[in-house]
Amino acid sequence: MNYKTSAVLSQKDLNTINQTKTHITTKAKYGPSKETKIPLIIKPELAFIVATIIGDGHLRKEKKQICIELTDLDLLKQIQDYFKIIFKREFNINLIKLRKGRKQSWQMPIDSKAIHNLLNQTFEIPIGKKSHIVKIPEFIKNSNKSVKKAFLQGIMLTEGGKRRRGYGLSTASKTLWKDLSVLFEEFEIPIQLDRWIYKKYKKEYYGLVFKEKHYLSLMRECRSGQTS
Length: 228
Hints:
Blueprint: H1 3-9, E1 15-19, E2 23-27, E3 36-39, H2 44-56, E4 57-59, E5 65-70, H3 73-87, E6 94-95, E7 106-111, H4 113-122, H5 138-141, H6 145-158, E8 160-163, E9 166-171, H7 174-186, E10 192-198, E11 203-210, H8 212-219
Antiparallel strand pairs: 1-2, 2-3, 4-5, 5-7, 6-7, 8-9, 9-11, 10-11
Helix pairs in contact: 2-3, 2-6
């Protein structure tokens, strides 16, 4: 099944308003709802959104809501802009009450069954707890390099950061770890892999690290609101 077919099927329990070569517009069958444009082509901005939801987002079963919470307000605003570009929907950013011992954070709740279905059914993002089972979606793996690069940018901005004497990330998902190692190799970014037991949780964690120069090359243009 190709991406276009999967995206259309993910909307089968909503009302279809119209469909073109580039998108399908849907709306909930019952109750008040807003029209949502679901893209039928994977663009870099969509891949970036998918990556940030995998990194710091959560798909709730109740109300088919997606929630993303970040301490980086500029990044959250960038994600908000991408939702406008891709889905033609605007979602509000809310300030989270400061919690003891934690940094100030902001949250963007996304109440959209159409987007929830796409992320869960087409991009394989699990509902509920997902940290140990997430992976790179097959449709991202099979996309062009600009889409894959945008995905890596989104992952690094949510899951990654400075590590050892370079940059890297750690994850509870062995599958995501292996998938990312393949993707970094495609971009000719040499990485070092490691794994360890997190004693507090008695679980195995997986990490990777690479040189700063490769990070800067990967992230070029991303912070200006562009993906490439």
